[in-house]
Design brief:
mainly alpha
Length: 161
């Protein structure tokens, strides 16, 4: 059964349909007996990736300090950047429409309040895999190699006739 689920996710990814993830259900659905609901995470467009990157750049992260495992530094980092992390996840979960832009902050609050840190990390990995920043890096490296100020040569002229 698990193999068929993985194949279905792979087919969705190849067809640009996005992936579905299980999220904790809101209060009303939990009262009706539904613990989780499925949400289709769309493939982020370029604008969404730019907004996610802008939020990430505003974080003051020191990875060496976090990897050291000091509890005080880790808690301080969570206190400083917890809302921003949930906003990055929410930006990746919504599309690029105006309605989606309005829903980012409430969705970030919902994710922060109803998901475990492990669940948020898994969701962030899914969004990062879907956003494929390597395509952006390929574009930037291609543009960097282009020298727009260099003269372009037209067809060579032949001497004599």
């Amino acid at each position: 059964m698990r193999g068929k689920r993985i194949e279905a996710h792979a087919a969705d990814a190849l067809l640009d349909r996005g992936l579905t993830v299980n999220l904790p259900a809101p209060w009303l659905l939990r009262k009706l007996g539904k613990k989780t609901f499925r949400y289709g995470v769309p493939f982020p467009k370029g604008q969404t990736l730019c907004r996610m990157a802008a939020i990430f750049c505003r974080m003051d992260l020191d990875l060496k300090e976090l990897k050291a495992g000091d509890l005080g530094a880790t808690l301080e980092c969570i206190a400083r950047n917890g809302k921003r992390v949930s906003r990055v996840i929410a930006e990746g979960m919504v599309g690029d429409s105006l309605l989606a832009r309005i829903l980012v902050r409430p969705l970030a609050w919902y994710v922060r309040c109803h998901m475990t840190m492990k669940g948020m990390a898994e969701l962030a990995q899914v969004i990062l895999l879907l956003s494929s920043p390597e395509a952006f890096m390929n574009t930037i490296s291609s543009l960097a190699t282009m020298n727009l100020m260099a003269p372009t040569e037209s067809q060579p002229t032949r001497k004599g006739s």
